[in-house]
Amino acid sequence: MTNSILIEAGATKTRIAFKISGETTVLNRGGLNGNLNSEADFFSFFKELGENIPFQVNGIYYYGAGMGSPTGKFKVEKGCSEIFNVNINIETDLLGACRACLGNENGNLAILGTGAVFANYDGSNISSISSGLGIVLGDEGSGAYAGKMLIQDYLNDKLEPSLKRLFEDEFNLTREEIIKTVYTRSGISKWFGEFTFFIKEHIDKPYFKELVIKNTNLFFDQVLSSIDFSKPLFVVGGFGNAFKDLVSEVANKRGVKAVQFVPEIFDGLISYHNL
């Protein structure tokens, strides 16, 4: 990958790697999602990137959220082509996670982050995908779904009084504000996912522990038939890693005996592409 750039773009952050004089340089930028960000956002990203790359770029490897759709890929290709006259290889964040964790080995991978998806990986490409339907149709096992569960229980008055007061003291949200936000705000998965920090802070309380367990069980309900039990399950994503003890406990009870948690995939991608 001489004079090439590696980009891993997620909903909350984007990481960039390249080599200068044999040393790997890593840059951090804000999140990018092909389904949520505009063409102008991608143009601005590549324009700023071009101003900070001190060599002639020969190629770009881009792994990102929203790259499963033609629209998302088009935004990246268009933004890139206006700045760099090079080939850009665009892949999904899911394939990036598989390559980072499994390299050239086959196995199972779950992303349990803001969203949730499961993949079977054959050593070079994804052979099948389960879940990954977004917050409206699914995303069980994700941070967004956990936040959604909490909001549902709050609005339906299912929180015990002490937890209800805890929630209200922390967020000061009215019923009307919540409903308006849910049905009018773009990027609602990210908003739901932000409640994960509150859940993590109070995980010592039985309600929050059971919420995480229930959320994780719902994920395995969707994907269990796709798991190769002879292989370990790699888990990436903020939600899975924040609650790895509970996720591992649920997975073990479902028959998955080896669960490996990977907090960050970027180092694995750097190794995969020999940067």
Description:
With 275 residues, this protein is an alpha/beta fold. The chain has 2 domains: 82 residues, ATPase, nucleotide binding domain (Nucleotidyltransferase, domain 5, 2-Layer Sandwich); 159 residues, ATPase, nucleotide binding domain (Nucleotidyltransferase, domain 5), CATH 3.30.420. It has 13 helices and 10 strands. The strands form 2 sheets. The chain has a 5-stranded mixed β-sheet with strand order 3-2-1-4-5, with helices on both faces. Strands 8-7-6-9-10 form a 5-stranded mixed β-sheet, sandwiched between helices. The protein is globular. It starts with a strand and ends with a helix. The relative contact order is 0.14. The mean pLDDT is 92.
Query: How many individual helices?
Result: 13
- Major sheet, described briefly? 5 strands, mixed
Strand order of the largest sheet: 3-2-1-4-5
Inertia-based shape: globular
What is the fold named in CATH at topology level of the largest domain?
Nucleotidyltransferase, domain 5
Strand percent estimate: 15-25%
The N- to C-terminal Cα distance equals 7 Å
Architecture per CATH nomenclature, i.e. the level-2 architecture of the largest domain: 2-Layer Sandwich
